[in-house]
Amino acid sequence: MRIGIVCPYTWDVPGGVKQHIDDLAQALMAQGHDVSVIAPAADDEELPPYVTGAGRAVPVPYNGSVARMSFGFLSAARVRRWVRTGEFDVLHIHEPLIPSLGVLACWAAKGPIVATFHASFSRSRAIAVAEPLLRSALEKLTGRIAVSDAARKSLVEQFGGDAVLIPNGVTVSRYAHAEPLDGWGPDGRTIGFLGRMDEERKGLPILLEAFDALAAERPGLKLLIAGPGDEKDVYERVRRDFHDRVTVLGMVSEADKIRAYHSVDVFCAPNTRGESFGIVLAEAMASGATVLASDIPAFRKVLGEGQAGALFSNGDPASLAREAAALLDAPERRAKLAEEALVAVRKYDWSTVARDVVRVYETVTTGGVGRVEEDL
Amino acid sequence: MTSTVVVLVVGIVVVLMAVYVSWRAGRLDRLHIRLELAKESLDAALMRRRAVVLELAGSRLLDPATSLVLAAAAHEARMAGPEEREHAESDLSRALRAAADQERFRERLSESPGGSDLLEELDAAVAKVVYSRRFYNNAVGVTRTAQRRWLARTLRLAGHTEFPQFFEIDDNPPATMAME
């Protein structure tokens, strides 16, 4: 299939949507599809061969935040030319409600068009004013995908209709190999946590309380914490004489994050609720870590009811401490769980996600739909 | 002098109205085309699912009882008239769930020769019914709203096309092949 993908945000700035598009494009190409991406980019910028630049992006305030987007006559003309010469079987627009290339592409093309909605948004004046415009763009979309329940919900509530849910993927191979962080390593005594420290539903306080209990019985036990937030909040919750056994890394780079997964014996995900799909959990599993997670429905599903990782009663520090102790004392069980996790996580690999997206493409191109054409 | 101005103004208003109406009509036409294509795609997906289920039932890879349940449900869905279609397709989903959610159904099937290809086909067929039905119902929704507009009703912009109906079935996939 020839697939044209429209990215609304600049290619040189890292971000969730851009990463999603890059991963998807690569997974599709690996499956033998022909992919062309158009994204805002300056003319002198180095781009991968499958990306076309649509002109420089400018920072504009929209809907409560500032984003670098691309619009105007020049971009519109380039998008039009890209659509005309691309001979795409299907056009895949990301975030069509953002005033950037997505809207321009919707305007310039007709035929089988699929859109993916990433962000959840709340009713704002901007959207209310632009609604008739956006509505006519939305009318052109044959298939709609949402990456999360939240994104799907806000789309349905504000514009009606429905979307199919295809969550983000994890590039499993990217996590497979990494050196542990300096001075760290799986030594049978390290517990890890990754996530926002100040967000209640990520459950860090539960882990800290359990750590206090565990550390009292196990002199060598250490805790490694990574993620945005204030380290004071962490130390306030840990007994003073255990402070030197708790290390807070704060925000880490993508590479260090992977190394952190490789540095621990037990990776703990104590989330109390939410998490329609535990991406952190999937990353840890892909890194070959042994996982101990709260038994919220999403995690039980990802971990195959405990087959691919241990579970503890949600919100219960005593249960967490008990399960963690059992895991730390059983290296063979840890290895077994980690092995199972590597199998289970394949379901969340990008190749699987891309397969589902291709099914959507096939659905919208069934029958005498024809190719994507320029809409004059 | 003034009469020319009046004629001119009336003329401009008429032209603007004509442009607006034809734009509206064009948009509605486009929605009808999209609806038509979505319907085709839904029909194709349902047909594909029936075909794959029948093939699975006739493959001798399953026990005879399961095969019979599947074959009967697929046959009913194929024979159903327009009135019973939604019921029959929902029953097929239920039969499929009952079959595929048996213990070790996937493992057993993928271990038998030719079974894993069939399983893959079944996964795709089930997913495509879910996708195409969502997209079809979306198209029905927008077309309905557009047809109900005052202008469309008064000028009969929709012509003789019928008021589209949603296609409501139970298409929940078996738990073991849940995509979401």
Automatic annotation (TrEMBL), chain A:
GO terms for biological process: carbohydrate derivative biosynthetic process. InterPro entries: Glyco_trans_4-like_N, Glycosyltransferase_grp1. This is Phosphatidylinositol alpha-mannosyltransferase. Keywords: Glycosyltransferase, Transferase. GO terms for molecular function: hexosyltransferase activity. Gene3D superfamilies: Glycogen Phosphorylase B. It comes from Nonomuraea pusilla. Residues 14-174 form the Glycosyltransferase subfamily 4-like N-terminal domain. Pfam families: Glyco_trans_1_4, Glyco_transf_4. The keyword Glycosyltransferase applies.
Automatic annotation (TrEMBL), chain B:
The keyword Transmembrane helix applies. The chain crosses the membrane at residues 6-23. It comes from the Bacteria. InterPro entries: LemA-like_dom_sf. Keywords: Membrane, Transmembrane, Transmembrane helix. This is LemA family protein. It comes from Nonomuraea pusilla.
